Amino acid sequence: MILRKCPNHGFEGIAEMSIFHNGLRSDTKMHLDAAVGGTMMAMDAGKAEKIIEAMTSTYYQSQNDSKNDPKKGIMDHNISKKHLAQIKILTQPLEALTTQMAKLPQQLQVVQAS
Questions:
Q1: Are 112 and 96 contained in the same domain?
Q2: Range of the domain at 8
Q3: What share of residues in the chain are helix, strand, coil (percent, to 5)?
Q4: Which of 21, 45, 84, 90 could form a disulfide with 13 if both were Cys (CB 3.0 to 4.6 A apart)?
Q5: What is the pLDDT of residues 6-40, one digit of tens each?
């Protein structure tokens, strides 16, 4: 834990866990409480620390698992189709404007001839 890097912090057991628990986001608190089958604050500080260590280790491994990394050089077709659709939506007004501007010289000649 981070507290091991600063052993002279002056907090003991349950106070340490209380500070840690209160500093978590609400969704993380819920995950932690679910992992202990109740509330983390009702546990012994040593047991709570072991559970936290296990959860962080599992999370770290899942984040660094090479199976989750997309292969380089391979494009996801779903993302590609999504981007193509967005590009088409954005370019339609530009194409319409370009068509109108192309007609302007002809319209000017008609007006000048009148």
A1: yes
A2: 2-68
A3: 75, 0, 25
A4: 45
A5: 665 667 777 777 888 888 888 888 888 887 788 87
